[in-house]
Amino acid sequence: MRIRSHIVLLVAAAVLPLMTFSTIMTVVFWRQQRAAFEDRFIERVRAVSIALDREHLATVSALRGLAESATLDGGDLSRFQSRAREVLAGEESWSAVTLLDLGGRGLVRIPGRSGAPVPSLNDSATFRRVLETGQPAISGLVTSPGRGGYATYIAIPVTRGRALRYVLVAEIDQRIWLRFLSFYPVAPEATMTLLDQNRIVMARTLNNDQWIGRPPSPTLYAKSAEFPLGAYRNVGLEGQWFYSAHSRASLSGWSVATGVPVGSVEASLRGSLVAMLVGIAGTGALAIGLVIVLGRRIEQPIRRLAGLARSLARSDTDPSRVRVSNVREVDEVAATLVEAAELIQRRSAELDEALAKETAARAQAEDASRSKDEFLAMLGHELRNPLGAISSATAVLDHAGRSEAAAARARAVIARQVRHLVGIVDDLLDVARVTTGKISLHRQVVDLASIAQGCLNTLRASGRLAGHEVALVAEPAWAEIDVTRIEQVLTNLLVNAVKYTPASGAIRLGIGAEADQAVIVVRDTGIGITAGMLPRIFDLFVQSDSALDRAQGGLGIGLTLVRKIVELHGGSVQASSDGPGQGSTFTVRLPLAAPPAPPHAAAAAAKAGSGRILIVEDNDDAREMLHAMLELWGHDVDDARDADSALACLQQREPDIALLDIGLPGCDGYELARRFRGSAAGRRVFLVAVTGYGQPEDRGRAIEAGFNAHLVKPVGPDALAEVIALARGNRQNR
Ligand code: ADP
Question: Is residue 243 part of a domain?
């Protein structure tokens, strides 16, 4: 159902009872009006009937005056005659006076010629009533004996003493009554009718001549017999509807009746009735009109509200410009709709965003999973090579007919491949520790240029540059770094550059300072990196497809380590490439540090020392480099590759300082220190642990084993000089 229909029903529910009540009241009012009219009508008719009685009484009393005239005492009728003539002349409404004897014979009749015969009365009933009752009697309508036409009689007895002598009769012409009726108009259009005691029309103001002597309308005829006084609706003699009323005069028994055409009565009543009905209908029409106008004012905002809801659903509406109506509730709903739409839009944007994030995360997870699968394949490949070499070398050793030289080569292969395997495992452990943030940095302020130079030297010496020439362009750039870790970064970047650059290519290592940053740039002219790979290149296990089949291998963890380490230093690393075949550039930025104060005098002196120093190190390159550096400083240097030769050297040479590598094959550095301390020569020596582990617990363990100092690999010249100076001071104190 439409809202307008509801409003119509609502208004109808409010207006209909009112209209019904008004209609009922109108009907009640109508009836009351009519009753009041009837009352007024009856009152008037009654007044006329009273006037009629009074008329008769006046006639009776005038007749009595004449009856008591002394002229009748002696029976001299001629004197009475002249007396009667005088009286008749004074009574305008009388047409004749007749004196009858008790036998009903006329004695005198005026007017009439004296001596002429007196016509007898046409109404013997009235005459008889006077004789019977001795009281005056009034006749009905009778024909007049003398003149013809209609008349009425009033007869009274004439007595002398107690004896009835004559009957005196006054004759009144019927027209007198017609005139009488016209004196008492009940209402302007009223028809007056006078009925005698036999309910015969005696006079009628309308069509008198037609109806005189005839009965009235049947209703009037019946009602006038039934009640002395009454009002009712009645069909008149001419056939029209009348409001009729009649009143019976008590003296004569005559009835005065009147009729007013229903139309004229009701016209006056109808005026107010019609006004009321028009009022009621007008109210109804006004209500309907208002319903239509106001309904539209309510309906239109609701339609617009629906339109707003639809356009909000299509989101093609600017919610801030929405104004629906001046109906507060509708505006509230509109505002709520707009709010809800905004909320839904926000929610859906959030959902979209969450979905996008989720999709990206899933893509990332899928990438990671793919990288991991590739990594596992790569790891298998990487492990299979050294394991294959080791297994072949073992077979050589097991072979009965092998030469000593072949056996030595086989052992060397096994040792090298085991070191390679250890390297792989170390890398894996390292990346695990670095990525979970479980390493701590041992920072010192160093010049990155010297670190880069050292690193290049080491790589070159170990042959890992594979014949590539790496150009170093270095300016001093001091940074507070963990030397071992930054060397790891440089090594990774340089080894990658070598791996991914053909022999003909060029590699350049640049060190410098820019504003507040120390910058390391490794640039090559190698295979380059695709744009798709660039953003992922530092992710764990990520390797470009082109690199997979390279003989150089790799596990895709080097760059992850690089980034983590650089970030731990508060720096950043960036890869760039113009695409495949265009070479790659890796740029590491670290916070620049102020250069340290000039080295301690004692440490400087250590570099120009003359102590006896024993180096115990199984890594040939490291041992040789250290040896060479200490000799350059002027020291007397011995070295040993393992525990046994170290102990032998201790006894023979009695060094001042012994630098013991902790990770020795067979007997580790801690064990060797304990054995040193067990001999006399060993108790005097200043023992320095050289280890890759720099945690406080590693230092504690070293001190416990009998070491005096603890150096973390790779050992820089300054750190070494400081330790030598410390050893010197120690000896002097003893
Ligand atoms: P990997 O052990 O495979 O070298 P890295 O994490 O060091 O692992 O490097 C990840 C990948 O980044 C390599 O597989 C290679 O595809 C690419 N990459 C690294 N360095 C370079 C470079 N200098 N030139 C071209 N590609 C490089």
Answer: no
Residue 688 — φ and ψ, nearest 5°?
-120, 120
Same domain assignment for residues 643 and 547: no
pTM attached to this predicted model: 0.44
Taken in order 62, 63, 67, 70, the sign of the CA dihedral is positive
Lowest average pLDDT, out of 88-92, 114-118, 328-332, goes to: 114-118
| 178: number of Cβ within 10 Å | 18
Residue with token string 């895709």 = 556
Cα 436 to ligand 1 centroid, rounded to whole Å: 22
Q: Whose CA is nearest to atom 19 of ligand 1?
A: 496
**Atom number of ligand 1 nearest to Cα 559:** 6
Could you tell me if residue 668 is inside a domain? yes
Dihedral of the alpha carbons of 551, 555, 556, 561, in degrees to the nearest 10: -130
pLDDT of the residue at 547: 47
Residue to probe by mutation, ligand 1, list 372, 490, 496, most atoms within 8 Å of CB? 496
Contacts 24+ apart (CB under 8 A), 114-120: 114/78, 114/81, 119/145, 119/146, 120/145
pLDDT, tens only, 180-196: 988 877 777 888 999 99
- State the Cα–Cα distance between residues 471 and 509, nearest whole angstrom: 6
Residues 448 and 587 both lie in one domain: yes
Is the pLDDT at 313 greater than 50, yes or no? yes
pLDDT in tens, 469-480: 889 998 889 999
Residues with beta carbon inside 6 Å of ligand 1? 492, 496-497, 499-500, 524, 526-529, 537, 542-544, 547, 554-560, 584
What is the distance in A from the centroid of ligand 1 to the CA of 359? 27
**Amino acid 324: pLDDT:** 62
- Cα angle at 206 between 201 and 207, to 5 degrees? 75
> Is residue 116 situated within a structural domain?
no
What is the atom index within ligand 1 of the atom nearest the CA of 548? 14
Query: What per-residue confidence (pLDDT) applies to 602?
Result: 53
CB 260 within 8 A of CB 246: no
CA R_g for the chain: 76
Least reliable range by pLDDT among 83-87, 536-540, 698-702: 698-702
Per-residue pLDDT tens over the stretch 102-113:
888 888 888 876
Q: State in Å: Cα 548 to ligand 1 middle.
A: 10
pLDDT in tens, 643-699: 889 999 999 988 999 999 988 888 888 889 988 988 888 888 899 998 877 676 777
Interaxial angle between packed helices 262-313 and 3-67, expressed in degrees from 0 to 180 and rounded to the nearest 10? 170
Picking from 525, 557, 591, the residue at the C-terminal end of a domain is 591
537 C-alpha to ligand 1 centroid (Å)? 7
Q: Are residues 450 and 567 in the same domain?
A: yes
Distance 496 CA to ligand 1 centre (A): 6
* Same-domain pairing of 627 and 706: yes
Residue nearest to atom 14 of ligand 1 (CA): 543
3-class secondary structure, 31: helix
Number of domains comprising the chain:
2
Q: Residues 590, 570: contact at Cβ < 8 Å?
A: yes
Residue 470 and residue 585 in one domain: yes
Both 619 and 708 in a single domain? yes
The domain of 561 spans 442-591
Burial class of residue 224 (count of CB atoms within 10 Å of its CB; 0-12, 13-18, 19+)? buried
657 found inside a domain: yes
* Å from CA of 360 to ligand 1 middle: 24
Mutate to test the pocket of ligand 1, among 427, 499, 509 (most ligand atoms within 8 A of CB): 499
